[in-house]
Amino acid sequence: MFSDTIVALSTPPGAGALAVIRLSGAAAIALTASVFSKKSLPTAAGHTLHYGTLRDPNSGEILDEVVVALYRNPRSFTREDVVEISCHGSDYVVRQVLALFLRQGARLAEAGEFTKRAFLNGAMDLAQAEAVADLIASDSALSHRVALNQLRGGFSQELRELRGRLIKFAALLELELDFGEEDVEFADRTGLAHLLAEVRRVVAALLRSFELGNVIKNGITAVIAGRPNAGKSTLLNALLREERAIVSAIPGTTRDFIEDEISLDGLRFRFVDTAGLRDNPADEVEAIGVSRTRQRVRQAALLLYLFDLSEMTPAEVQREIQELTEGLDLPVMAVGNKTDLSTTEALAAFETTFRAEHSLTASSAPLVFVAANQQIGLDALQTALLAQVRGSALENTASATIVTNVRHARALETAAAHLAAVQAGLDTGLGTELLAADLRHALAALGEITGEISSEDLLTSIFTQFCIGK
Ligand code: GDP
Ligand code: ZN
Fold it and tell me: What ipTM does this complex have?
């Protein structure tokens, strides 16, 4: 428990119907009572609402009519006494109320301090505390779902389970060390090898999920490349227009748009339009344009190669995709535009020829036909985009744990390296001491994620598992 009581505005600044000011700390209720009209507040039960007025005790001035929500330690977000005051959402009122509480002895909370207190007071572990931040920042259905899952402990539970099993082995190894010179093996090496293999598999899967988590959290950068007049700008506008129509149909949405971002089925796509690619980059200026496009492509997670069906042959499309993605491991979609100028037969023939060229990797890329300026084929394009990004990975991990946090990913990488060292040590018959050290490092890295590791952790486990007095 902290001795001081913190206060902050918990809703966004600016005018609104309501603003919520939150206090947490030992004096939260007493402080509120000193300026609140209801004299029963100090003895009121937790989880109750109280309507009344806030009054400056010095000037006697009434500041606002408010509703006070009371939470008593430990049944609150921070596990301290917490008061949430709903007042009218004007900047003036909020400033006055905050100033009043500061005069009464509260301290302005630092960024994230309520959540920090929740962690330090044991209300949640580190990964969960971080999920609170992710949840607040999440702006798509999918990132919201991932953060919520993490907040409820999904990620932490999986890690705790892993660590628990490893700690048992670490404890046995420590025990061997305690026996010093004697040639005893408490820790069954075969059993340890099996567990290691399993844990390494899970850690690797969690690390792989980070790639996906990153995509969910930050969106997917898709580069639209193609020759001038292929219809890149038209397609981008068509994609954006559809999204805008959907969003503006929701009453009350006043969200600012980043020009080229759309959300498909909970995944954010950031489309980057590129300078046109020339068929033949003869002069220098055009060569620069192409190299710039290539640079963009290198940073993308997906290449959408757009071409004019009436202008390019399947072989030409293949060749340009090949050139753009040379040396890159990047999903590609070939999108043929201006179907309105083609016949159904011509489209079918194009596809057949496109697929027939097996020597080129691009021949297996999804091929979609659209008429961008008439909004034809956009649904199929979006479906193909989603399928391309998700692949089978997302289907399999839909309900499983997804790592979204960089700190967690780093810790998992460290753990993976030490686990690999333990594995190598087992394979080469490394001494117990070194095995134990590597295992300890791996456990520390895993424990860093939930914030529960300390060297005492290990000692406690040894103690509780084996009642050998020392
Ligand atoms: P960019 O240079 O690749 O960005 O191409 P633009 O988007 O500027 O389009 C070039 C021209 O193609 C414009 O005149 C568009 O109106 C036209 N265009 C785009 N999509 C289609 C389409 O599906 N069918 C037809 N017939 N014309 C299109
Ligand atoms: Zn353009």
Answer: 0.98
